[in-house]
Every structure is written in C-alpha cells, then in structure tokens.
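Batch manifest, entry 17 of 40.
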Amino acid sequence: MPRFCQMPKINGNEIRPGNILEHDGGLWLAVRVDHVKPGKGGAFAQVELRNLRNGSKLNERFRSADKVERVRLEQKDQQFLYENDGMLVFMDMDSFEQIELPAEILGERRPFLQDGMTVQIEYYEEEALSASLPQKVTCKVVETEPVVKGQTAANSFKPAVLDNGVRVMVPPFVGQDEDIIVNTETFEYVERA
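Output type: structure tokens
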C-alpha cells in the first residue's frame, strides 16, 4: 500500500502555504507564498520553500504557467515507547510495527514528548519526514516564585521551570508542584490541569 498520494500537477499561482511540492528532485514545504503582479510582465508567486529532508531553504519564483507536483503525505498516529541512543522508538497502533526516528525530528519540542504519548508522523512512501506532538500537554511546575496573596493575574506573569526542564511564563497564582497545560507550538501556559 503506498504511503503517499500522488496529486495532479498544479499551476504556480495555486501554491499555498503548507503545500508539499516535489521540486528539483526534493520534497519541499511551502512556508510563505507572496503573489506578485508587476507592472510589466506576467504575475508570479514568490515562494519560500523548506526542504523536508535536510531543512535547507530556497526562494523560488513560479509563474502561473509553471506546473509543479503537489504531494500529500500519509499521516499515521504512533505511540512513543522509549528513547535509545538518540533514537525515538514509536509503535504503529494498528500493525504494532516499531520504527526508530532520530530525536532531532521533533526539534525544540522534544522535551514535551512523554512515555506512551500518541504522536502524528508524516510519511512519504516509507520515509518518515516529520512528527508532531499533541498541541497541548500536561506538565508539572517544579520551580517558580511563591504565590503572592492579593496579586491579580492582570498581565503579570512569572517564570517557571517545568518537570521537563522547559522554562515558561505562568500567571502569579500558579505554584510549585502544580500541573499545568502547555501549548507545544508556542511554549505558552494555557491553563491549570
């Protein structure tokens, strides 16, 4: 069973941020797209691309007549089992197959990965290209300033260190050893758990 969906070619002016394109022999994520209509000549899309395999960046100009191959990745939910020598081991929850991916695939979000957590992994054919954590995770505050009575929560946040070593800003009413919910995309406090 193929793990990706071959899409029809699209015109250069149909590229949108978040599209994955096959271009110059690589797989690229469209990060930013600016549509430019110069006074002379035809309109074009100025597209900032990021290589999904090595992270390199590229700025490319696509005219509306240019055809590009759009690729859809297959997304699978997989359960995190353990880490071994910088490799994260995940299990497919349907087939129980295990795969190993380098810890760098999660980038700066790596500290939020917890045992047994379900992670969405994107595949192109048999190759895992990216992994995304749930948007919100529960963490314990291990270090913060004590709660001050009478202090209102109006725009005054204080620093806190979580059980995974990540530093976040929390409202003044959050104390040490409390569980809080953190957004894994913005690294911001969401609410008490």
